[in-house]
């Protein structure tokens, strides 16, 4: 499956080179949880209106179906389309990423990257960035980029890229930050 030009294999959850060269060195379920966390940072909500106990994932139908299959493998349904975007909601206490999101209640202007990400191994930091770009990134003319309203989120994602030795450039675009980085095939990880 391809979302925004990025590839995330879904059927049977297998991961191969070159997207995750260090995948075999980490716990699969934790790696997947870090991807989910990146997705909710990108195109999700850490609360749903006044319901701070609900996480909301949004994206293409394929992406949202994959998220549901990870969060609730035996469930059918549970996703819906509103205003042209597919959505899946999960209560925090039952979510696989509850330990990562904690009690944070942030909106698009105040999202930040959890400190737990920065203390994790390189593979998990890569998974957060990959999940984020799968949800909120775009690829055109050989360049991958994202735009965010949260300056703290931008700083956190740039810290992740620095720790992984990924080249990028940040520019201001009104109240937003625009980040342009090298394509996934060009990424290399520092030794850890």
How is the topology of this model organized?
Elements lengths: L1 E2 L2 E2 L20 H16 E2 L8 E6 L1 H11 L7 E4 L2 E7 L6 H4 L13 H4 L3 H15 E4 L2 E6 L2 H13 L4 E6 L2 E6 L11
Antiparallel strand pairs: 1-2, 3-4, 4-6, 5-6, 7-8, 8-10, 9-10
Helix pairs in contact: 1-5, 5-6
Along the chain, the helix and strand elements come as: EEHEEHEEHHHEEHEE
* Helical run tally: 6
Query: What is the overall pLDDT average?
Result: 76
Describe the sheet with the most strands: 4 strands, antiparallel
Structural class: alpha+beta
Placed side by side, the strands forming the largest sheet appear as 3-4-6-5
Computed CA radius of gyration, to the nearest angstrom: 16 Å
Ends: how far apart? 30 Å
Coarse morphology:
globular
Strand content: 15-25%
> How many β strands by DSSP?
10
Low-confidence stretches are 1-21, 185-192
User: Roughly how much helix do the residues carry, as a percent range?
Assistant: 25-40%
Task: Describe the protein's architecture and organization.
- With 192 residues, the protein is of the alpha+beta class.
- The chain is built from 6 helices and 10 strands.
List keywords for this structure.
single chain; 192 residues; alpha+beta; four-stranded antiparallel β-sheet; 10 strands; 33% helix; disordered N terminus
Short description:
The protein is of the alpha+beta class. The chain contains six helices and ten strands; from the N terminus they run ββαββαββαααββαββ.
């Amino acid at each position: 499956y391809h979302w925004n030009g990025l590839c995330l294999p879904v059927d049977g959850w297998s991961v191969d080179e070159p997207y995750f060269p260090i995948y075999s060195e980490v716990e699969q379920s934790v790696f997947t949880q870090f991807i989910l966390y990146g997705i909710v940072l990108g195109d999700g909500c850490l609360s749903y209106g006044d319901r701070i106990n609900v996480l909301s994932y949004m994206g293409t139908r394929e992406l949202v179906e994959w998220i549901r299959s990870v969060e609730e493998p035996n469930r059918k349904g549970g996703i819906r389309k509103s205003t042209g975007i597919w959505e899946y909601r999960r209560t925090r206490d039952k979510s696989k990423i509850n330990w990562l999101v904690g009690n944070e209640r942030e909106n698009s202007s105040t999202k930040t990257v959890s400190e737990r990400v920065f203390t994790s191994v390189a593979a998990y930091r890569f998974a957060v960035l990959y999940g984020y770009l799968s949800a909120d990134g775009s690829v055109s003319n050989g360049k991958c980029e994202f735009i965010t309203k949260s300056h703290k989120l931008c700083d956190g994602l740039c810290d992740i890229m620095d720790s992984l030795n990924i080249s990028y450039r940040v520019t201001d675009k009104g109240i937003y930050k625009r980040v342009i980085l090298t394509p996934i095939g060009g990424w290399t990880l520092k030794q850890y």
